[in-house]
Amino acid sequence: MERFTVEILTVGNELLIGKICNTNAQWLAQRITRLGGMVRRIVTVPDSLPDIVQALRDCLSRKPDFVLTVGGLGPTFDDMTLQGVSEALGRPLKLHREALRMVEEKVEEMKAQGILKKPWLTPEREKMATLPEGAEPLYNPEGTAPGVKLQAGETLIICLPGVPVEMKAIFDLHLEKLMAERSKLKYAERGLFVEGIPEPDFSPSIDEAMKRHPEVYVKSHPKGGEATSKIELHISAFAPTLEEAERRVEAAASWLEAEARRLGGRVERLG
């Protein structure tokens, strides 16, 4: 099976001190997986230029198909992701005409809406249009800072804003089709909730399901501790067609459902 590979690099002190939950990485991992990709690593670094540079170089050394950075594209002093990309690749930062047009357009929109107290192009706004040499801006329908696309050897680097609505909008607009074209596989999943059987007692059945259906992956998650005898099962598969992926997971899910009932458990389908 051929799946494209992705590493996600999230940037922000707020993630590392626990102030903000890293929902961006979770959302991206889910979307990439459903598009047929494989997320190999998710790394979080602080708003520190040396850390961003080193983490990005580490990602690139493994030659994934994509590296997605998230956060650090804004106008403030601690938004330094693009500077990190510049230093990691040895490509100077330059004011990009098309990116500047995108920023100016957003400034005009917010001026017309009476949102801005400084409705003109400031150095801070120009910073959002200053990209590493060779980069292309990606239109951001929900915010001012464009996303950024840049090829580095075998890897395509995509820089996304940290604001979730902006990150998701750029992914949907620019990346979903791009990644789907890279993938030769389709993804399907099922969920089962099993109650009344402790996870250690059901583990042999999970092993047997994967032997019977080697193309399927089954992951169990105990809920509320072993003493509660509640398990959530996640069943997933990839295949050349969506129909085949659906057939594979349904076969494994049906077998596990019957097995749980045989052992005296109660089963509920999820989602």
Task: Explain what this protein looks like in three dimensions.
The protein is an alpha/beta fold and 271 residues long. The protein has 2 domains: 5-182, 3-Layer(aba) Sandwich (Molybdenum Cofactor Biosythetic Enzyme, Chain A); 186-270, Ribosomal protein S10 (Alpha-Beta Plaits, 2-Layer Sandwich). Helices cover 42% and strands 27% of the residues. It contains 9 helices and 12 strands. The protein has helices spanning 13-16, 23-34, 49-61, 81-89, 97-112, 123-127, 164-182, 199-212, 242-262; strands at residues 5-11, 38-45, 66-70, 93-95, 130-132, 136-138, 147-152, 155-160, 186-195, 216-222, 230-239, 266-270. The strands form 3 sheets. A 6-stranded mixed β-sheet has the order 2-1-3-8-7-6, with helices on both faces. Strands 10-11-9-12 form a 4-stranded antiparallel β-sheet, with helices on one face. Helix 2 (23-34) runs parallel beside helix 7 (164-182) and helix 8 crosses helix 9. The longest helix has 21 residues, at 242-262. The mean pLDDT is 93.
